[in-house]
Specification:
Elements lengths: L3 H7 L7 E2 L8 E6 L3 E6 L5 E5 L2 E5 L1 H5 L3 H8 L8 E3 L6 H12 L4 E2 L5 H11 L10 H13 L3 H10 L6 H4 L2 H14 L41 H4 L4 H13 L4 H15 L46 H16 L9 H13 L4 H13 L6 H4 L13 H19 L7 H6 L9 H18 L7 H8 L11 H13 L5 H8 L9 H8 L6 H27 L11 H7 L2 H47 L5 H21 L23
Parallel strand pairs: 3-5, 4-6
Antiparallel strand pairs: 1-7, 2-3, 4-5
Helix pairs in contact: 4-5, 5-6, 7-9, 9-11, 11-13, 14-15, 15-17, 19-21, 23-24
């Protein structure tokens, strides 16, 4: 029994969890419930009615006034001297907490349990049941039970934190949530050696860890404790309390792999499937989204996947709860690489896009995916386009993920001094330097993705080509995957122009095609002829180099220069299937050459006809008669020149008296 006299005289015993007081003033046999109303079994009739919601308490003023400062103030500061009714609808904990507080005021024994201690503590704070009115009041009693009983037990800390879900903001202001979160974090990070472990979330026959019972002789030696023992218990908490616990665990230095695994366990519990099969609904046999209400019966329930509606539909309650969970989980994912699986991140990203999570958090999640994109699978990467895009799959999203991956690869290969503090923290624990295998894995993944999305009729050639050319050339050893994707796109888009087909085929490196791909390309009617010729030429070079290489090995030459033999030798050394394809290609090329020669001949004939016509035109132009006036002027000019030459004759040299030459006289024209 907890009473003020025994506490002052002989110490305090908090283990029994029973509260009593001997100073109550009214003798009573207990409380009786009749039709949503509580009555005190006493000889004195009640003089005060306290109503909380639809529950009424018929009590006496004196026991309450001696313990509660708030009720004192409500009664004595009111203008109504005969006040006999008080309404306390905003009392935290509701009628259940007030019932326990009223019993404490009457001196009735109250059993304190983890399920009711938080509500009773908040109700005592609300009623202002402090030590100023009476020593050993309810605030002191409940605080002592929290500190010495609840916080020393793993199971009790979980249950109390779970019961705080309906007591906001009182539980936050009284630091109950913070103390329970730190207690859970300390126990989760502590050394389990010498502790007898069991689990709250397991079947009832297994109890919680007995932190205050250290008398057992190290049972953990015979039964090792798994590192994820605390996942199930912590996953029972509401998302905001789960975030508080994980944050406290991070501060205490737990490994980021365990933190990521705990986050994944929580997401699988509260977000079943994470829309693994698209925007579908999950089996409705479980409980609904009221699983966060705080009742113990709803702990095993999760938030079910909603059915994707139209863009203008208002978000439902379930959608809001899911969005809050996703946003909270994104914010606490450890920044280190491989803290959570890439498949989990992509499924979480798909759900975040569907539920329209904030763009900043979506970008942060995309960066996490880009850090470990080489671990992704094609199934997880095929995220539908939930926005107004016409394409079936979100190709722009994959383009961004690929960009983040390349940026991360470049950051790892650059000097550490150029990295920011956040980047250095983000990549802490990862390998320094680029991983060539990662780029190759991503290249194969992108080729498979392109092959899958190539069937989409609305996918433009530009988007397809940009995504195919995003990776550097060194990422692909063979271009068979790119060729397969291009062939699928050409097959699904037969109306492409010749120019678009040529531009699309530029993403293929013909020198990186295998023998099977070359054979398929040589007979592929969808490819432009220029590409087919390039494929055949590159394969010819490969065969010649292979033959020369084998000859070098036989001759034992140390230095080797590739030598291209004649065509007959090449064909004799090639497989029969390749010879048949080569023969068909040669026939097509000869046909095209014949047509080209015919066109050249016709062009020369037309050019010759043009020259003949030009000569005939010039002759006709020269035969044209000049005008009479022009002919007369020409004849007159000739006659004038003849007369002048006849009259002047040879000149006699000048004498000494004649120093100047006489001016020439011109005959007037007769025009």
């Amino acid at each position: 029994m907890w009473d003020s006299e025994t506490e002052l005289a002989g110490g305090r015993d908090y283990g029994n969890g029973v509260l009593t007081t001997s100073k109550h003033g009214v003798k009573t046999k207990g409380f009786e419930l009749m039709d949503r109303s509580w009555y005190v079994a006493a000889d004195i009739p009640s003089d005060l009615l306290v109503q909380i919601g639809d529950v009424k308490f018929h009590l006496h003023k004196y026991p309450l006034l001696s313990r509660s400062e708030k009720i004192n103030r409500l009664i004595y500061e009111s203008r109504d001297t005969d006040l006999n009714k008080i309404v306390l609808d905003d009392l935290p904990g509701g009628p259940e907490a007030f019932e326990l507080a009223a019993k404490f005021c009457y001196g009735i024994a109250v059993d304190l349990e983890p399920a009711n201690i938080s509500g009773l503590r908040c109700a005592a704070e609300y009623l202002e049941m402090t030590e100023d009115l009476e020593e050993g009041n309810l605030i002191f009693k409940t605080e002592a039970f929290l500190s010495y009983v609840v916080l020393s037990s793993w199971r009790d800390s979980i249950l109390v934190l779970k019961s705080c879900e309906k007591l906001s903001p009182w539980a936050e202001n009284l630091q109950i949530v913070r103390r329970c979160s730190e207690s859970i974090a300390w126990k989760a990070c502590a050394n389990p050696k010498g502790i007898k472990w069991a689990y709250t979330g397991k079947p009832p026959k297994v109890s919680s860890p007995k932190w205050n019972n250290m008398n057992d002789l190290s049972p953990s030696r015979s039964q090792p404790v798994p590192p994820d023992w605390w996942f199930e218990d912590v996953s029972l908490l509401r998302i905001d309390h789960f975030v508080r616990v994980i944050t406290a665990i991070k501060v205490k230095g737990m490994r980021f792999e365990l933190i990521g695994a705990a986050i994944m366990h929580y997401a699988e519990k509260w977000l079943p499937g994470l829309i693994k099969d698209g925007a579908g609904s999950v089996d409705g046999g479980g409980n609904s989204s009221n699983s966060n209400s705080g009742s113990s019966s709803s702990w095993k329930a999760g938030l079910h996947i909603i059915v994707a509606g139209t863009k203008d539909d208002p978000p439902s309650v379930q959608a809001k709860d899911q969005r809050m969970i996703i946003e909270s989980l994104i914010s606490i994912i450890p920044p280190q690489k491989d803290s959570v699986s890439c498949s989990f991140l992509l499924r979480l990203l798909r759900m975040a896009i569907l539920l329209k999570v904030g763009s900043a958090l979506v970008t942060e999640l995309e960066k996490h995916v880009g850090m470990q994109l080489e671990q992704a699978t094609l199934e997880d990467l095929l995220i539908p386009s939930y926005n107004k895009s016409e394409t079936l799959y979100d190709v722009d999203l994959v383009q961004r993920l690929l960009e983040y991956f390349l940026v991360q690869e470049q950051t790892e290969s650059s000097s550490p001094s150029r990295q920011s503090f956040r980047d250095a923290h983000m990549y802490e624990g990862t390998q320094k330097g680029t991983n060539p295998n990662a780029k190759m894995k991503v290249a194969k993944l992108v080729d498979s993705y392109l092959t899958e999305v190539a069937r989409d009729w609305n996918l433009s050639p530009t988007k397809f080509r940009v995504l195919a050319e995003a990776l550097p050339e060194s990422a692909r050893t063979w271009d068979d995957g790119v060729y397969r994707a291009v062939d699928s796109y050409l097959k699904a888009h037969p109306m492409l122009s010749e120019h678009e087909r040529k531009r699309l085929c530029r993403v293929i490196d013909c020198q990186k095609l295998s023998m099977e791909a070359c054979m398929h390309a040589a007979q592929n009617e969808r490819l432009p002829l220029r590409v087919v010729v390039q494929v055949l030429f590159s394969e010819q070079v490969k065969i010649s180099n292979a033959i020369a290489n084998s000859s070098r090995k036989e001759a034992g030459e140390m230095h080797y220069q590739p030598m291209i033999p004649n065509r007959k030798t090449l064909l004799e050394g090639a497989p029969q299937s390749f010879q048949e394809g080569w023969t068909a290609a040669i026939e097509d090329i000869n046909t095209l050459k014949f047509e080209l020669e015919s066109i050249k001949t016709k062009y020369l004939e037309l050019q010759n006809d043009m020259e003949i016509l030009q000569v005939q035109f010039n002759k006709m132009k020269n035969k044209k008669q000049a005008s009479p006036w022009a002919t007369g002027w020409k004849k007159l000019s000739k006659f004038t020149k003849t007369v002048e030459n006849h009259d002047i004759g040879p000149q006699v040299p000048a004498t000494g008296d004649q120093t100047r030459r006489t001016p020439r006289r011109w005959r007037n024209s007769i025009s």
